[in-house]
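FIELD: query
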Amino acid sequence: MNDMTDKLLDVAIQAARRAGEIHLSYQNKKLSDVTLKEGLDIRTEADLEAERAIIEAIHSSFPDHDILTEETELERKGSDYLWVVDPLDGTINFAAGLPLFSASIAVQKNGENIVGVINASAFGHLYIAQKGAGAYLGEKRLRVSESGLSASIVGMNLTAHFTDKHSDQALEIARNLAGRVRGLRVFVSGALELAYIAAGQMEGSLSIKSDPYSRMAGKLLVEEAGGRVTDEMGSPFTNQSTRIIASNGVIHEELAAVVRAAVDNA
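FIELD: result
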């Protein structure tokens, strides 16, 4: 990798670690500022504090770069570089005391993911990826599994900000897959699910309603570990995509077909 990409990775790691420290500082404490977002989804003071820390870390090294972050809309500067940030993915899990949460930070150059970092601080796990240089958990290089559908663990979303239509589609997907995969899981932590696919611990993840914030770092992890990340039509997953299928590659077309059928039948 070149010096610029290495510096981007260093800053992303620094920012993700700082966010993780903030997450852990709230553990075993009562959250005092919990507000509703869409539906019954929530935002906490931990989301906002972690976001401020990440933005500060980015701006201190790259003041001209653009940032797309979940909680705050920032003015675009027209940079070739865009940081895509979820300061606390899995907020509902976090607020409930469940450890399935993380900070997710990706860097794009001209729309292409070149750096991805996910800090699952509750587990002490830092996942990193660079375009063309692989995906890692610590010093361990990651590789997707080679399992077929019947031996697969697949994650999916069914959450408080879904419309009735989204919920119907998700339940249709669950009915279709329940007898065909080894296990369905509803973590509602997209970044972690993609990290687990990259690590070979899961084979797939899909969501009928998606966003770039929690998925872009994981997208690079999965791809660098040999997997695939697309929308339901097989097109590249982008910042504008509304549905996502991530997989080890082996089961990708089968998952995409299930999602397409659910969308068509809704």
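FIELD: remark
The first strand starts at residue 34 and ends at 36.
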